Amino acid sequence: MALLEYIWLDADGNPRSKTKVMNNPPESLIHHGNIKVSQLPSWNYDGSSTGQALGNDSEVILKPCAIFNDPFRGQKNTKLVLCDTYLPNDDPHPTNTRYHANKLFNKGLELSPLFGIEQEFFITKNGWPVGFPDNRVDCPAPQGSYYCGVGGESAIGRDCVEKAFMRSLEAGLALTGLNAEVAPSQWEIQVCAHGVNCADQVTVLRYILMRTAEEYECGISIEPKPVSGDWNGSGCHTNFSTAPMRNVGGYDVIMSAIQKLQDRHVEHMAAYGKDNDKRMTGLHETADYNTFSFGVANRGASIRIPRETEKNKRGYLEDRRPASNMDPYVVTSMIFETTCLQ
Ligand code: MN
Ligand code: MN
Ligand code: MN
User: Fold this and answer.
1) Phi first, then psi: what are they for 118, rounded to 5°?
2) How many A from CA of 54 to the centre of ligand 1?
């Protein structure tokens, strides 16, 4: 027997999941924990309960697209199975952004696009970040001690985040780091992977964070600006390079990519997450929502060129515009399309 947790995204991009018991799974799964996507069956769910179908024709089809270890059940025969969604006629569901992202990436696999995504989030209780008084009026101590902070007054919710971090590694996610962020109970975890795989991993990271927060009767908020006023919002800085950017002569390729991003600034901003305008005020380490800018080591610019990249004349760029609630399939594939396929 195998226990497969099928995960998909609902109409709002939130993860949902349910368990499939698979009788007589392949021998390789039982003995070595190995199984391929092609060995897993399609499944379906009630789309009328996820905002993705009407009650009189409610079935949405799940097709497995990526497999991860299940750190919650923790056995060889237990897996997290990421799925994308289809209509009964086999067309991709209108909310299936992975399908289109995958198609775009397949047009330029030789470019080896690599993404490093910095997922910021808050831990919430009753819909409000932990560490902010429940009356939603009084304020905790102002920002200053929280970023990479240590101690119970500064690092709020570490136990939950640490547990989710270790589980994500166990699942097989290619994480590159973890830090406490600028506001109380705000944290960041970074994921680095090629092509569509990066967005898959961000999706599973969000899932593992939310599942882990359940144990604390808490939620995870990826809203870009959960607390207004003098508090940082949350972003999803997207670091990006292709093989030509990483190789000799890469700096020119990076500069021309930045020019192309500038030309499509308005379209990118429209796709970079709901309520991102509330976060991108030009304050709190953000650029202005309506103004494209770039600069070396500039954390107030739309695009930051890392100091190392300038020095080595090759490397990567950082798009600082995406909001924490961005659709990683849309954002990664759009950056790739704009800079490499135009
Ligand atoms: Mn960061
Ligand atoms: Mn950060
Ligand atoms: Mn960053």
Assistant:
1) -105, 95
2) 41
